[in-house]
Amino acid sequence: MQVVSLNDLEVIAESVTPHNMWGFIDGAAYSHLTKKRNRDKFAEITMNPNFLVDIDNRDLSTTILGEPISFPVMVAPAGGQRQHHPEGELATAQGAGQAKTLYTLPTGSGYSIEEVANVASGPLWFQLYHSHDDITEHLVKRAKESGYKAICLTVDVPVSSPKERDLKNGFLRDTALHDGSLRDRPDLLNRKGAGGSRDFADWDGAEFQGLTWDRLDWLRSLTELPLVIKGIRTVGDALKCVEHGVDGIVVSNHGGRQIDHTLSSIESLYAISAAVEDKVELYLDSGVRRGSDVLIALAMGARGVFVGRPLFWGLAYDGAAGVELMLNILREEFDRALAFCGYRNLSEISRDAINVPVTWG
Q1: Which residues of 175-211 are buried (b: 16+ CB within 10 A; e: fewer)?
Q2: Residue of 131, 175, 169, 182 whose CA lies nearest to 153
Q3: Distance of CA 144 to the CA centre of its chain
Q4: Annotated catalytic residue 132
Q5: 73-75 vs 304-307, strand pairing mode
Q6: Residue 159 maps to which CATH number?
Q7: Does residue 107 fall inside a structural domain?
Q8: Residue-wise pLDDT tens digits, 131-156
Q9: Number of domains observed in the structure of the chain
Q10: Active site residue: 138, 244, 254, 261, which one?
Q11: pLDDT confidence of 193, banded at 50, 70, 90?
Q12: Are strands 151-154 and 124-128 parallel, antiparallel or unpaired?
């Protein structure tokens, strides 16, 4: 099959991925309503083409918390990469670097913070699931020392959320292919496991324990790295992020994996962007599958977007080269959307680029 879209990569990936592993990658919480809504709500938004304008010398580049990337699509943290592909997070970091964009390493990466940093050529963030203070202190320190550019605190897993497909498939987490950063610290690894199940039926990283708004100052005291909070879905929580001096917000519903019956991420971004304006950098995660989705998110106020499941499709297709291909497909589609809307660079994109249904309020 000739690969011309992310859908092609998805079809190929499913065909070569073991059934149980595919269920983990593709699955979502309960009835998959939020996962489906992520795509359905993008489909409700239309773009406004503009013609007879100069679109030569288009520039797709931007900065994320001051770090330059070649275009506004980044790779989200996602558990299970090494169980899916032998090179796992190493290949994903390499593919993102080859595409000259940012990669966020998951807490439970099969390879260590240092191993990934050694092969990366693009900027890295470290995703943090907080379970115990001493584990967080240990990991944050290592991320800083290894050159990671920000700490991305994921907050939307207050309790574990079993995926019904994983339960039916009896899909278990291969413990040897996870937690590479704690490989040399079995004392900390055992404490991490005490917080919840060690199998994939219950696990996307760790349960979020013991960290509340009033403890963010403690987390920030561990490092001068920027703090990004991932998993924000409401205006109220977004405004709390601003109040607490957070540097960035990832508007995300975890791809529908953690709780069902919520708004899509693009709906949440619509409301949050209007409320926080330019007080903090906003990013969108969940449901991006086309370059037009990227333009829509930017027109709605996002600085950039993250992709999660598509990284697994790229890995299945051709490791690091497959991840790079996935990103380059989105780059080309985004460039065409930019041109059709009459823009030459990202600073020109405005809300006038899109039409949002009046029912969204």
Answers
A1: eebbbbbbeebeebbeebbebbeebbbbbbbbbbeeb
A2: 131
A3: 20
A4: no
A5: parallel
A6: 3.20.20.70
A7: yes
A8: 889 999 999 999 999 999 999 999 99
A9: 1
A10: 254
A11: low
A12: parallel
